[in-house]
């Protein structure tokens, strides 16, 4: 992300609580950031959709930088995941009002693919940030399950006004516990040599309905 694009995005995010995720807000941000006319259209050709994607990538970068400074290798895997998700929420904290608007904006079917790409990029950044190097089927199952956890926790976080985000932490711990139970069941099935009939990706989608694609969503 160039300096101009980042300045435009940050100015835009400051305006979102008042203007919404709109092209009008992008044009206003262009003016307030002292950028040339047309800079917003060049940076975000599809308007708010591209702005949402750019914001997600920006937050992923901030999270990754913080995780790189932590001694994650000394933690259990569940503690690494917990730390990474909370770190992602932490870097988004200054933009909670804007994200509240974004969550309402992104439920429309035409924006479904942009929302899915953003979540996919975030969970991939989390796994890579905590040292995951899998390339086999586990690569996909880990990300599918974490997407369900992240979406549930994000929804609670948006409405959690407690200074320490107590409800968010409780929800995150509960969701991680459930995932750990799934892993225990998988382990028992393998030991009994019983074939797994459903891929875990399908099971996780059933367990976490938020992963399902909205009906009629576009593919951009």
Question: What tags apply to this protein structure?
Answer:
220 residues; mainly alpha; disordered C terminus
In the predicted model, the low-confidence regions spanning at least 5 consecutive residues are 194-220
What's the helix-strand series? HHHHHHHHHH
Largest sheet: none
Which outline best applies?
Answer: elongated
What is the rounded Rg?
19 Å
Overall pLDDT confidence: 83
- State the helicity in percent bands: 55-70%
Could you describe the 3D structure shown?
This protein is mainly alpha-helical and 220 residues long. It is built from ten helices and no strands. The protein has helices at residues 3-19, 23-32, 39-43, 48-67, 77-92, 96-105, 112-129, 137-158, 166-191, 200-207. Helix 5 packs antiparallel against helix 9 (166-191). The radius of gyration is 19 Å and the shape is elongated.
Quick overview of this protein structure:
This protein is mainly α and 220 residues long. It has helices spanning 3-19, 23-32, 39-43, 48-67, 77-92, 96-105, 112-129, 137-158, 166-191, 200-207.
Write the SSE topology.
Blueprint: H1 3-19, H2 23-32, H3 39-43, H4 48-67, H5 77-92, H6 96-105, H7 112-129, H8 137-158, H9 166-191, H10 200-207
């Amino acid at each position: 992300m160039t300096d101009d694009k980042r300045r435009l995005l940050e100015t835009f995010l400051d305006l979102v609580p008042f203007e919404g995720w709109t092209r009008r807000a992008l044009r206003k941000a262009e003016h307030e950031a002292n950028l040339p006319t047309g800079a917003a259209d060049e940076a975000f050709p599809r308007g708010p959709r591209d702005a949402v994607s750019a914001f997600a990538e920006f937050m992923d970068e901030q999270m990754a930088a913080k995780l790189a400074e932590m001694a994650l290798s000394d933690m259990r895997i569940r503690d690494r995941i917990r730390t990474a998700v909370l770190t992602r929420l932490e870097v988004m904290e200054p933009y909670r009002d804007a994200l509240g608007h974004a969550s309402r904006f992104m439920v429309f079917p035409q924006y479904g693919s942009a929302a899915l790409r953003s979540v996919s990029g975030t969970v991939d950044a989390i796994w890579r940030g905590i040292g995951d190097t899998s390339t086999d089927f586990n690569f996909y199952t880990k990300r599918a399950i974490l997407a369900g956890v992240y979406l549930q926790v994000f929804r609670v976080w948006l409405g959690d006004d407690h200074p320490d985000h107590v409800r968010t932490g409780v929800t995150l711990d509960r969701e991680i516990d459930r995932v750990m139970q799934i892993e225990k069941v998988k382990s028992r099935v393998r030991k009994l040599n019983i074939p797994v009939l459903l891929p875990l990706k399908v099971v996780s989608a059933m367990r976490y309905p938020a992963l399902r694609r909205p009906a009629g969503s576009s593919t951009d």
